[in-house]
Design brief:
Blueprint: H1 8-19, H2 31-39, E1 43-47, E2 63-69, H3 76-83, E3 87-96, H4 99-104, E4 111-113, H5 116-127
Parallel strand pairs: 1-2, 2-3
Antiparallel strand pairs: 3-4
Helix pairs in contact: 1-5
């Protein structure tokens, strides 16, 4: 994966302890396992990326929370979420350029930082 969430591990721990959130990694999982994980989730939280195409397997009424950076806001997964009647929330973080993102010379490859305030709002969204 070329883009990272700055402080991801600390945020993940907060989400687990404060909101009962469970984390899953799809790397190495079969499509069937990915589909089952998404279908059984009430809330799906992820950085913007191709893996969010799995939202098509989400059950109606679940929520997709997508984290994007300010330089690359993209509506693709909002569109997919709406097709399958999934609620959609976007969280726009700060773009943090890396050598890799600079080498690409186009938006969408930067790391993402979320302010403390955005992290609190994200946790509240997951809890609700």
């Amino acid at each position: 994966m070329h883009r990272k969430l700055i402080g991801e591990e600390a945020l993940e721990q907060k989400l687990q302890s404060e909101a009962g959130f469970t984390s899953s990694q799809f790397t190495g999982k079969s499509l069937s396992d990915q589909a089952n994980t998404i279908y059984n989730a009430d809330k799906i939280l992820s950085l913007h990326g191709a893996g969010l195409t799995n939202v098509i397997f989400a059950k109606e009424g679940s929520t997709l929370i997508e984290i994007m950076d300010e330089a690359f806001v993209n509506v693709n997964f909002w569109f997919y979420a709406n097709l399958v009647n999934v609620d959609y929330v976007s969280v726009i973080g700060e773009s943090i350029d890396t050598d890799y993102s600079i080498s690409k010379k186009r938006p969408g490859y930067a790391d993402i930082a979320l302010s403390d305030d955005l992290q609190r709002k994200l946790i509240e969204t997951v809890k609700s």
